[in-house]
Amino acid sequence: MKIYPYPSNKAEQRVQNTIKRGLGFTQKDQQAVESYLDDVKTRGDLALVEYTNKFDSPHVTLDSLKVTQKEFADAIKQVDTPFLKTLDRSINQLEYYHNKQKENSWIDTPRNGVMVGQLVKPVSAAGVYAPGAKGGKTPLVSSVLMGGIPAKVAGVPSINLMTPPMENGSINPYMLAAAQKIGIKNVFKAGSAWAIAALAFGTDIVPKVDVIVGPGNIYVTLAKKIVSGIVGIDMIAGPSEILIIADKDANPEFLAADLLSQAEHDVMASSILVTDSPRLAEATLSAVKKQLGSLDRKKIAQQSIDNFGAIMLVPDIDTGIQLSNRLAPEHLELIVKNPFDYLDQIQNAGALFLGEYTPEPMGDYIAGPNHVLPTAGTARFSSALSVDNFTKKTSLIHYSKKAFKKEADDVIRMAQTEGLGAHANSVKVRK
């Protein structure tokens, strides 16, 4: 990690390097994913079990592909009580936040004899994907919560969780406890592209869904991209990223820890500090080097920091915010005096963390907002996973005869101008 005066040619080169980093897939990856999708579409559960046996566990069969009630019951008994209490707090706070996002159907009468409105309905079935980190040994419980809770709040009647099994053919009990706590009854032991295929096309055992959400490796991401015309998806997620804007009073130890919290995700992750304080820049650089040595995922974090980490030394905080808006980071921490004073200037960010005691991991697990966020600059036009991803809106229109006649000629004129005679005639015959 280096310090770059901004603006400068070297700083601009580093910015462009960050902006241009992509998903990192090859044509070979694309072809492999397409073959998995086609195979599951054709052979269904047989292909699903075959790939699961080959890549995750030889113990999964057609009969054990779906988690049983006994497995759910056994899982709860294996999870320690303190974690269950943590799980309850996280679920309660996530549900509270996502309930605020719910939209109601509405009807209005803007003109005499005319009624317009909107029906808001949940999709019939949703698929949630949760990666099987380290073969299920480090259960990504938060992925279950972040995908399942907004679907539950939206009122989706069928929520289906896909996650790779451990080598012994079971699902980590912490994952099953989380699913059970939020009411997910359908859990299937499959991962990667073939799991996405099963959700998108349906099999004899796995229901076909309307929406698929959740993070995953490049195969999962490519599979979601390919099936996105068949089902809805949350987003095409790229590598994780954090940008921190900090002033001279920020704590460099805090900043270093927050930068590394994203760098440990992936060698493609981006961690950038933007500050107007040369002293803070140097102190943070020193703290990053010191903290890096104690990380379990040191090699990943080191490569991430080397490739896409940076400290941008700006003339003032306003310039820093302009740079941030340009990068549109997934996570933006604003660790400055009176951070709320800058809210109006923030245009592009997936999630905004205000103040030195609001590190990004609070949003990952327990604050309430969803941690599935737009990456790679897509916060310029997209938003976090929400209840909206699991609903669809139907427009309502009604005219009385009198109201129809009042506006009919305008419709005829518009239709004729566009050369659509049958449209015009649909109105003419009623006159």
Describe the fold and architecture.
The protein folds into 3 domains: 3-21 and 239-368, Nitrogenase molybdenum iron protein domain (Rossmann fold); 27-233, Nitrogenase molybdenum iron protein domain (Rossmann fold, 3-Layer(aba) Sandwich); 400-428, no CATH class. Helices cover 45% and strands 17% of the residues. It starts with a strand and ends with a helix. The strands form 3 sheets. The chain has a 6-stranded parallel sheet, sandwiched between helices. A 5-stranded parallel sheet has the order 6-5-4-7-8, sandwiched between helices. The protein has a 3-stranded antiparallel sheet with strand order 2-3-14. It is an alpha/beta fold. The relative contact order is 0.14. α6 runs parallel beside α7. The chain has helices at residues 9-20, 27-43, 45-55, 69-78, 81-99, 141-154, 173-181, 192-201, 218-227, 252-263, 278-292, 298-308, 317-327, 360-365, 401-417, 421-428; strands spanning 3-5, 106-111, 114-122, 125-129, 158-163, 186-189, 211-213, 232-233, 241-246, 270-275, 310-313, 331-335, 351-354, 391-399. It has 16 helices and 14 strands.
Task: Give me some keywords for this one.
431 residues; alpha/beta; Rossmann fold; six-stranded parallel sheet; five-stranded parallel sheet; 16 helices; 14 strands
CATH class label of the largest domain: Alpha Beta
Task: Please give the share of residues in helix.
Answer: 40-55%
Class inferred from helices and paired strands: alpha/beta
The share of residues in extended strands comes to 15-25%
Identify the CATH architecture of the largest domain: 3-Layer(aba) Sandwich
Radius of gyration: 25 Å
Q: Helix segment count?
A: 16
What's the average pLDDT? 96
Which parts are unreliable, with pLDDT below 50 for 5 consecutive residues or more? none
Strands side by side in the biggest sheet: 1-11-10-9-12-13
Shape call:
globular
What is the number of strand segments?
A: 14
CATH fold field value of the largest domain: Rossmann fold
Largest sheet: 6 strands, parallel
CATH homologous superfamily classification of the largest domain: Nitrogenase molybdenum iron protein domain
What number of structural domains do the residues give? 3
Q: Order of helices and strands, N to C?
A: EHHHHHEEEHEHEHEHEEHEHHEHEEHEHH
Instruction: Report, as a whole number of angstroms, the end-to-end distance.
Output: 73 Å
